[in-house]
Amino acid sequence: MKKKILKSLSVVLVFSGLIFLASSKIDFKEKKIDSVFFVPDEDNLVLRIANTNIDVLLALDEEKRVLGLGFKENLDENSGMFFVFEHKDYYGIWMKDMLFPIDILWIDEAGKIVHIEENISPETYPKIFYPKEKARYVLEVNAGFVEKNTILIGEMVGFN
To answer: In CATH, what class is 33-159?
Structure first.
């Protein structure tokens, strides 16, 4: 009788463990950055600004943020890099090792664009560009994207 109970209990524990592991895998696949942006995987995300979708590479750690778009020859249309920081601050962006001009958008933790710099060329290095307000995210896109899509400070950035 005791062996039967122990065997049943073992089966229940193993089954419970499998359910826990399965739910853990789901949690790891959909990583929550914060209340505004959810990252479905560790490499990219689709953002939405002014009815335009933007495929972005993610820079979630210091190594990726320092490298940024450096050494890349270009970006596809409606694509960019999305820098994610742990807290809001006056994050500076430079054009070290950049090969093409970009527009830079600083975004607060609510998803609102708080500062924009347009058509920043690689020749501006070592100048560092800072926002006028603290931001939690930075979005780098091709030069001309802001003008083409009539992006303004105060607009909201969301995700698809």
So the answer is: mainly beta
